[in-house]
Design a protein that fits this description.
CATH architecture: Alpha-Beta Barrel
Number of strands: 13
Bound molecules: beta-D-fucopyranose
Shape: globular
CATH superfamily: Glycosidases
Strand content: 5-15%
Radius of gyration: 21 Å
Order of helices and strands: EHHHEHHEHHEHHEEHHHHEEEHEHEEEH
Number of helices: 16
Structural class: alpha/beta
Helix content: 25-40%
Mean pLDDT: 92
Number of domains: 1
Length: 481
Amino acid sequence: MSMPSPRPPHGAAPAAPEVTPGTGPDTTAGHGAAATRAPETPAAGLRFPPGFTWGAATSAYQVEGAAKEDGRGESIWDTFSRTPGRTRNGDTGDVAADHYHRYAEDLDLMRDIGLGSYRFSISWPRVQADGTGAPNQRGLDFYRRLVDGLHERGIAPMATLFHWDLPQALQDAGGWESRDVALRFADYAEIVFRALGDRVPVWLTVNEPKTVVQNGYLVGHHAPGRQDPAAAYLVAHHLLLAHGLAVAAHRAAGAGRIGPALNLHPCYPADDSPAAARAARIHDGYENRLYLDPVLTGRYPQDVLDDLGGDSRLARGIRDGDLAAIAAPVDLLAVQYYTPYYVTADGTTLPRWPTSQAAWQQIHPDGMYDILTRVTRDYGPVPLTVTENGLPTPDTLGADGTVDDAGRVSFLRDHLAAAHRAIADGVPLESYHVWSLLDNFEWDAGYDERWGLVHVDYQTQRRVLKRSAHWYRRVIAANGI
Ligand code: FCB
């Protein structure tokens, strides 16, 4: 079986030297399929189409804190982060950015920046402490307050139903290896649609199923911390089934639009050999087509099924009707782009570009163009939104009270130029969300990586808009860079 290359565990050696992005000309030689490119530094004055929406994203476990309040149950990330050795510095999301209590202040910050859309996630264990049964009204009330607060400030809510914080009780019952969890997810989705469906115009079902598969079940440095390749791809199937069942529940409930949130990675051959091209193709199968194909075409990619073997747990786990359920028509596809892969003939990956503070992230804005245009080319004109894009930078609060994250400004500008080019070439991209609004709990990397437009002092919970937030406000006001 060819193995994809999930993010290396924290503490792994960086793939390439870390730099501040965007500080020099692109002098890198061409590389196979990716050789001919426009320069990465944009000319100023790129206007986005009228109505293009600018946003920022967070997720529940990463920002909310209040882990034991108002009837919230335990999630697998509570268990995982409280297990010694699992996260950097033993960090947990117990308090995080305390957004559960400070959401009103955070809503004001969003308004100050000028956001048109805020993508957040709903914590399943706040809504159903054990993942089943009657809803916890206090949990739903929090999201109602949040959504109302967004509307009061003219910001469109975009809600993700599942951003990895599975109720621990469902993990104890088998987790995503159990088909039943997908059915429980549909019940949970129905509860949420009933409570908030009238106020949320865009829903996202499952965030990055691939990351659960790879980080949760192959490498094991995300919850639930397993290293079980056979289980991993059955988990993929059940996550996709959960997505499809939630889409069906949404259709029954009525309002708004819905789609999945997939992290996609362009997979380039590392050299010009036919063997590298073949290796890049199967790598692309595991990274992209394993998720795109079933959702958008109703089939799993045959090369991946063959590579896994006819007797794989995935193959055995597919029941009649599952693929039709997974392929329930979606209204939009949410794309999250962070890094490309360069695949050698033997199927390993090589770094080609400088990395950010996150060792797994190579900075390559053209990858954004490539992945957006590829989705449109291969899957047709499904409306696209970018729901995550960003990087961590080692931000500190200066003596003058400002945070100068120049690297984030360059990164965002270069990626937005690539998105603009994709739109000019016909990609129906309707909105863009920076990851993240706030510095937050970055999973196994804990609080060491700061991904926010807004700096959070975790001692005082004081928020300071970084230079990038001020820059983004101008981008939004101008509808362009
Ligand atoms: C994505 C996750 C998000 C955050 C960013 C950096 O994979 O969806 O929660 O961790 O990476």
